[in-house]
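In this supplementary section we document a worked example of the pipeline. Step one takes a protein sequence of length 431 as its only input; no multiple sequence alignment statistics are reported here. Step two produces a three-dimensional model, which step three serialises into structure tokens for compact storage. The input and output of this example are shown verbatim.
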Amino acid sequence: MFVWPSRSPALAPFFLVAVLAFAFTNIGAARDMEGRDNAWIGTWAAAPQPFMPGSLETFRNQTVRLIVHSSVGGGPLRLRISNTYGGRLLTLGKVDVALRTTGADIEAASARVVTFRGRRSATVPAGSMIVSDPVLLQVPALADLAVSFYLPRETPATTSHFLALQTGYVSSVAGDRTGDATFNVGRTINSWPFLAGVEVKAPTAAGAIVVFGDSTVDGDGSTAEANRRWPDVLAQSLNRDAGSRGFGVLNAGIIGNRLLRGSPREPPSEFGDALGESGIARFERDALGSSGTRFVVLRLGTNDIGFPGALAPATDIVGVADLIAGYRKLIAKAHRRGVRIVGTTLGPFEGAIAGPGYYSSEKEAVRQEVNAWIRNGGEFDGVVDLDLVLRDPEHPARLLPAFDSGDHLHPNDAGYAASVAAVPPTMFGAR
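The serialised model returned by step three reads:
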């Protein structure tokens, strides 16, 4: 079910151009074959987060090849590389990008060296992000890209994205292997270290849709290696044919993320800081900071309700008014930037296997009241009723068994597909 209030103002196009690459944005075609102006738009993203304790990947004079899946097509492209949670300088000996064939291998003719202010090597200061120069490569919609980093020094991946649901590859041979068409794999990883985004030049009629939230946005419960996360399925529905306008669809989900608080530190937690900063704290960077953002779809709040007394101190308990106040802050931030923000209701989670006390009848009452406000408050620019889509009609506090991944909290592939089916393409002005 989708509701679009008539009060929504028309949106002026919004484009964010990274200052570091400003001098290079005129490289490549400024117009497409039909004469439309082109501008930078995100085609893939992963929200940076601190590493998971006990799972810190470290690379030593090795090449790491990461696989990502585009949404909108275009070209040239550029990369966003993050050292947001690094405690020291990140040194990139060389970076390469290409179209993937299978596994860790690439199409040799598509391989391109990535430069930074004209140089093949780069350093990223602690707590910072850099944007590459434009790379003259045409990226198809819904295609796999391989991004290869040569890391000459001992490099701990203190900034990463934990739930990639996509295999990454570490070379078995020391040194720079970024351009190797056939990649000799020493080991695999299941995270996306350092890479925060891929952007392409695309027609200005298109724009980026950022899906912002928790593990249900990140894709927990979906099939690995299959790009069946909710944002992936949305990207497929909007970019599957040549007649579509084309939209970048960016995944800004983080497992365990909360709207109002960051990763819990007490009681002693196995997660450390890895569940990220609060949604309010990271919204500007992960949602509004992406190039070409025109819409944000917000799915956040379940963990604020469920965590207290289970995975966070009982004193973290939040009420309906607290969550509404948090949502209003994000709505105001988006509107100040000329971005429309769509709210989604919170799905059911009775029986969730996420820790004792995650669900209770009192928490269910909070969820129901919050959902009533999201549906009827009229403050979001649109509403997608995911609760209606995912709940069991015979037992509305639980996920429909056909949509349950098995943990009674996260949808499976069918549940994510049903979530997208509730979002008509006309919501974004697509045809």
